[in-house]
Write a structure and sequence with these properties.
- The chain contains four helices and no strands.
- The chain has helices at about 1-20, 30-40, 45-50, 55-75.
- The chain is elongated.
């Protein structure tokens, strides 16, 4: 979480600039909206974890960590607004 928070703005800027240089048609607001929607999508991985056998501590820690990191990113980006009531 700390690494993401520290490096995410620069990575987002670099990625956006590369997309624009390659002919991407997003404006910055649309790009950030899509990024925030994708943060919500990342919650699918730990929730589905069907391909992971949760029979040991290591597997449970992995899924728990994925869930906690996804939830933190969602909160950091106020992405809960994309939840359907």
């Amino acid at each position: 979480v700390d690494d993401r928070r520290a490096h995410e703005p620069a990575i987002i800027d670099a990625y956006f600039d590369e997309l624009a240089a390659a002919g991407g048609h997003h404006d910055r607001d649309d790009f950030m909206r899509d990024y925030r929607v994708t943060a919500m999508f990342c919650l699918c991985y730990p929730l589905q974890s069907g391909g992971i056998e949760l029979a040991n501590d290591r597997a449970r820690d992995l899924v728990r960590g994925m869930f906690e990191r996804a939830m933190t990113a969602i909160a950091d980006h106020d992405a809960t607004e994309f939840l359907v009531p």
